[in-house]
Amino acid sequence: MSLSISWSAHVTGSVTDDVTFMTTVTREMAESNVNRREMTDQSAAEKSVRPKSSKAWEHFTLNAANKTVICKLCKAELVWHGSTTVMHEHMKRKHVVTDEGETSARKKQLTMSEFVQRRNPPCTPQQAAIVTDVILNMLVTDMRPMSMVEDEGFKKMVGTLNPGYILPSRTHFTKLMERKYQEAFQKIKSAINTTNSRMALTTDIWTSVATEAYLGITCHYIGNDWKMTSVCLTTMPLEDRHTSTNIAEWLEEVAVKFEIPSEKICAIVHDNGANIVAAAKLLEEKHGWSSIRCTGHTLQLVINAALKNTGIQRAVGAARCLVEHFKKSEQACSKLKDKQKQMGTPEHKLVQDVSTRWNSTFYMINRLIEQRWPVTATLSDPSLTHRDKRYLDLKPDQWSLLEELCTALKSFECATVFMSGQEYITVSSLPPLVKGLLKSTEGAAYDSASVKSFQVTAFEQLQNRWKETLFDQVDNPVVLSSALDPRFRRLKFLSPEQIITVQAKVQAKALAARREMVQQQITTSTIRTAAEPSTSLLDSLLESGGSSDEESREEKAEEDLNTQIRNEVLAYFGERPLAKEENPLDWWRDNKDKYPTLAKLAKSYLCIPSSSTPSERLFSAAGNIASKKRASLSPEHVDMLTFLHSNSKFWKSE
Fold first, then answer.
1. CA 93, CA 384: separation in Å to the nearest integer?
2. Any residues with CB less than 8 A from the CB of 484 and at least 6 apart, and which?
3. How many CA atoms are closer than 13 Å to the CA of 174, on its beta-carbon side?
4. How far apart are CA 82 and CA 74, in angstroms?
5. What is d(CA 123, CA 116) in angstroms, rounded to the nearest whole number?
6. Closest C-alpha among 69, 336, 210, 36 to residue 623
7. What is the mean pLDDT of residues 73-99?
8. CB within 8 A of 243, min separation 6: which ones?
9. Residue 134: pLDDT band by 50, 70, 90 thresholds?
10. Whole-prediction pTM value?
11. Of these four, 175, 187, 353, 420, which has the most CB atoms within 10 Å of its CB?
């Protein structure tokens, strides 16, 4: 109530209210004076602590009631004692902002970018080089296009993580990638040239989404440490027709590029394509490179032929349609998950097969059998599945057929997975594995006529496709690798006559290898003594005159060499076989001094992969690099990125 109103009330009121009136007036006047005094004090305080010459207030706000100031940058609340000292100290300690030059109120307040720049000075050249190298490694490892460095999201992320780093252009990263390729190429070429082992190649041809053809080549050898080493040599773009002559020339060009002598290559593994088989034959005739067909691709042909049965095709086709239904319906998948929980079935998704991989058909059938009852229950639910879709459920005889077919395919799937490995020895396992497949296929008993037909066809295909390699000419590289694998040295998959033939071949190969070793020693000795004083004329005459004695010494040396090799071979084959789960390379590392000639020979055969899967894996990487998003990459850059990605162990730092 204002003083005027109170006074008016007093004039019009009675005399008896005088005391009340005076009390009210006194109280209101006192409150008014207090308010005016507080306002004056606050105004004076703000005026006294905010001189225009101090920039501290550009970063703080005052809370006079609580006697505190609040930092605008980090929201810290400080006790205020009437001066700006505490604010200056906070800025120096927490935000690296000094009071230098803070004399003019007209000076601009620090912007956020200026503040960040003060806290994060530009990277030194050394720091920037480290960050750039890490980004390049990420692009190669994750197979990202170089254009990723131009993406707004990526630039913002890098700027946030390291504001002082200036992101180079896409062109700069491309040049760095080319330089990195050259460094890795030199390291790999040096590693290949320094090993004293022979090596095998795998090769395959692939076409990208941009319809560009590539030839993939990998190299495999056993190092001086008795470890299997696999290297990507190239995914070279192909411009000419894929004739056998051209393919053979391309393979020779890559060997020359890496300075691999032709005699150092023992074999080439390839698929069953007519042009590449013919190319391998040309190289075998010209250089002696053994031609070995890919086990995985051969098994694919065996199974494809065996699956061409009307009953099987109908059952597999029905299974494929059933899986497609669930793949296209989120509601059906959700209901299937509910049924799996109710029935206690593993909560696995159904698997869709692809035509190029027979084992994907096995995985589809195997998963469908596992989920048979949840699938049937889902399809039988009228609230979910319309009447015209209930035909999707398989008939009882189809379920039975698929169960038997799944059993028949299991051994083939196991063999395919094992023979596709490249970190362990595989080629020596091929003969006993094929024998095992023949035995298991022939001995199985099935009720379904369709699966019986599959059984007969698969058996015939196995025999026909490996007849020449494993059963007719047993002195071939594949069987010799089994003989030099201590796990299979007894050669139980061969007849007694064949075992004698293989052991004789091993002895002949070992003798040739020892002669080569002796010749190398003689050559080295000759070079070493070439600078020494020549013998006297008399010594020369006596030496030439005693040729009969020299011939006698040579014959004795040859006889001793034959005896030595024969004893080494007999001792090796006389030992007990190594356990199947043991690593044959570890065994050879531990016994190389006991069997020096056979150890050298073993490296030449055990290095051969049983399949061309390593080359196919290159195309998995190349496919990611040359995808639609990356289709603008030149074929040469696809080759470089694939090379770096596949050979990361040769150039990545720890």
1. 67
2. 428, 506, 598, 601, 602, 605, 606
3. 14
4. 21
5. 13
6. 210
7. 77
8. 275
9. very high
10. 0.75
11. 420
**Residue 551, CB-side half-sphere exposure with 13 Å CA sphere:** 5
What residues contact 62, with CB distance under 8 A and at least 6 apart? 46, 49, 50, 68, 69, 80
Q: What percent of the chain has pLDDT over 90?
A: 55
CA dist 263 to 245, 287, 338, 349, Å? 20, 7, 63, 51
Q: Are 389 and 580 in contact (CB under 8 A)?
A: no
Measured from the Cβ of residue 600, the count of other Cβ atoms closer than 10 Å reads 19
Closest CA to 650 of 243, 258, 110: 258
Give strand pairing partners of 232.
Answer: 218
Residue type, 366: N
Contact (CB, 8 A) for 295 and 611: yes
- 391's tokens: 């035909």
Among residues 180, 202, 192, which one has the least CA distance to residue 224?
192
Is residue 401 within 8 A of residue 309, CB to CB? The reply is no
* Tokens encoding 543: 């030496």
At a CB cut-off of 8 Å and minimum separation 6, what does 375 contact?
322, 326, 336, 339, 350, 368, 393
The string of pLDDT tens digits covering residues 31-52 is: 544 444 444 444 444 444 444 4
Say if CB 405 and CB 365 are below 8 A apart.
Answer: yes
